[in-house]
Design a protein that fits this description.
The chain is α+β, with helices and mostly antiparallel strands. It has helices at about 1-30, 80-90, 110-145, 150-185, and strands spanning about 45, 50-55, 60-65, 65-70, 95, 100-105.
């Protein structure tokens, strides 16, 4: 029985780690006023009929704090890259000069910063819900084991361990959110 309890804890821990990794990946995509090539992660371009990540059809570089440059490896990819950026609704407008695409990031207004902070908090709430769902599944599994003959003391200790894990990961989410909010709100 203790092997099964250890397995439940290990699975919950692994799943919570994945939830945090997902949150970190999503927060990187949210721009905070500075140019960052990661804001295009997950953006795909139609490359001869195949959806291809934008970083695989061209070079993305930062020229200064507010400018990104995308240099496609093939000139005929300029239009699809441009369409993909516009369709992604990132709040930026690509400028195509025939050889490269420049993206100027406008300075964030106070209103836009507040919208971004709301989005950051939404991502954080999604992560918290995912972590709580992992906790619920683990505790249900422990309760099933309890019905199959697991002692109440072991079940209670395991439930407490899962709850401690949950509290720890929720606090990690809160730290990430506070850090990103500070980054977004700093001028």
């Amino acid at each position: 029985m203790s092997d099964e309890l250890n397995s439940i804890s290990a699975n919950a821990l692994d799943s919570m780690d994945k939830a945090i990794n997902h949150l970190e990946a999503e927060l990187i995509k949210i721009r905070a006023g500075r140019a960052n090539p990661n804001m295009f992660d997950g953006l795909v371009v139609d490359y001869y009929g195949n959806p291809t990540p934008i970083n695989q059809v061209g070079n993305i570089s930062v020229t200064d704090a507010r400018t990104l440059v995308i240099q496609p490896w093939e000139k005929n990819m300029l239009q699809p890259i441009e369409r993909s950026i516009i369709a992604a609704n990132l709040g930026v407008t690509p400028q195509n000069d025939g050889t490269i695409i420049r993206i100027f990031l406008p300075p964030l207004t106070e209103e836009r910063r507040k919208e971004i902070v709301k989005r950051v908090h939404q991502e954080g709430e999604h992560s918290k819900v995912a972590i709580r769902n992992i906790r619920r599944d683990a505790i249900e599994h422990i309760k099933r084991l309890k019905k199959d003959g697991l002692s109440e003391d072991l079940a209670k200790d395991s439930e407490d361990e899962v709850q401690e894990m949950t509290d720890k990961y929720i606090s990690i989410v809160d730290k990430h959110l506070a850090q990103k909010e500070k980054e977004v709100m700093s001028v």
